[in-house]
Specification:
With 364 residues, the protein is an alpha+beta fold. Helix content is 37%, strand content 29%. It has 6 helices and 15 strands. The strands form 3 sheets. The protein has a 5-stranded mixed β-barrel. Strands 3, 4, 5, 8 and 9 form a 5-stranded antiparallel beta sheet that branches. Strands 14-13-15 form a 3-stranded antiparallel beta sheet. It binds zinc ion (2 copies).
């Protein structure tokens, strides 16, 4: 039996299963690490982006740039608009450029498995409205028009809650009973108004151009970076992105560690099996040797007289003489035939310790 055959003999269903789990774990870890690297490089891009205040110097800078374009820059400014602003429905004096009204339904639902009433919230409607708006610096001129704000995944976070109202549902006794039986009780609705108010300080990161006699900031060409509109300052945006990236890295490291631990246990188990297989091989050779010794000794020892020897016959067949020493326990209790017939991994019939080796017994 070659070494390769021995190794292949060790591979069983469990090993295949464990190896697959290891492969999946390793790939997952690699994917998580890849996501981490992407977030990290995004954060790096934002960190390196030049930042400008909105003033006449900035206008000159953009006008004189090639194609009157700065491909990826950050600007700080206050939200303003040249058209009539949007009014909050609940507080008409609150004005802004983006308004989102959501209605959330609150229900008590009977848990089929938990057997308790559980609160369940569900957004049932969402309506939003927006008007063109600009960012301005300290003075009312120049303005930078914000183009396609909804293209920025960060935009809705800029809006703040300006009104929140809970409207309880009025249910009759009959409806209450029906609700109790059906396992669903409506508690009411929350109406929320979120608004990007005039005067909110924003940081906008994107492509700035001078066209149609005005400054505009718009989604950048995709190879430059993300279009960001945020209430946070640039430094805070970077640290938010970094902490996201760190979570992915942590997940990647944990997954990698789990895979390596699994690999360690697979290897340890296979090594154990390998050692046993080697022992079995040597044992077979040694048994052969003992058998040869038996032929040599047969003249001196009458096998039928085995019962009369001091040590008695083999403890398994109770017929043949005890012919070999079991190692490592050292018991002399068995004949070659019975030792050979023991199921693998072979165990000493007296003490159950594993038969690692055997040596022939010589009668003086
Ligand atoms: Zn025997
Ligand atoms: Zn023993």
């Amino acid at each position: 039996m070659t070494l390769l055959e021995t190794l292949l003999g060790l591979v069983d269903e469990r090993t295949v299963l464990e190896a697959s789990a290891f492969a999946v774990g390793t790939s997952l870890s690699a994917i998580l690490y890849f996501i981490h690297r992407r977030y990290d490089s995004k954060a790096k891009v934002v960190e390196d982006v030049p930042i400008f205040d909105i003033n006449s110097d900035f206008t000159t800078l953009v006008k004189e740039a090639p194609f009157s374009t700065l491909p990826y820059v950050a600007i700080n400014g206050k939200v303003s608009t040249l058209t009539a602003p949007l009014h909050s429905q609940a507080n008409p004096s609150t004005v802004g450029v983006f308004l989102k009204k959501t209605t959330t339904e609150h229900k008590d639902v009977w848990g089929k498995y938990t057997h308790v009433w559980q609160n369940e919230d569900r957004e049932v409607t969402a309506i939003s409205d927006s008007i063109p708006f600009d960012l301005q610096g300290l003075s009312s001129h120049p303005l930078v028009r914000v183009v396609d704000p909804m293209q920025s995944a960060w935009f809705e976070e800029c809006a703040e809650v300006v009104n929140e109202e809970f409207v309880p549902s009025h249910t009759s006794t009959v409806e209450s009973i029906v609700g109790f039986v059906s396992g669903e009780r409506l508690k009411g609705y929350t109406q929320t108004e979120k608004m990007l108010r005039l005067g909110t300080k924003l940081c906008a990161i994107g492509e700035v151009v001078y066209e149609d006699n005005m400054l505009k900031i718009k989604p950048p060409a995709s190879n430059f970076g993300e279009y960001i509109l945020s209430k946070f300052r640039k430094g805070e945006i970077v640290s938010q992105m970094r902490s996201k990236s760190k979570i992915w890295k942590l997940l990647a490291v944990l997954m990698g560690a789990a895979s390596l631990t699994a690999l360690y246990f697979i290897m340890r188990r296979l090594h154990g099996k390998y050692v046993i297989a080697q022992d079995e091989r040597r044992l077979a050779e040694e048994l052969e040797e003992v058998r040869n010794q038996r032929t040599v000794q047969s003249g001196q020892l009458n096998r039928d007289d085995a019962r009369n020897t001091n040590q008695g016959p083999c403890v398994v067949c109770l017929t043949n003489p005890r012919e070999c020493v079991i190692l490592n326990c050292g018991h002399i209790c068995i004949c070659v035939d019975c030792l050979e017939a023991l199921p693998t991994p072979k165990e000493c019939p007296l003490c159950r310790s594993r038969v690692v080796r055997t040596v022939p017994l010589f009668h003086a």
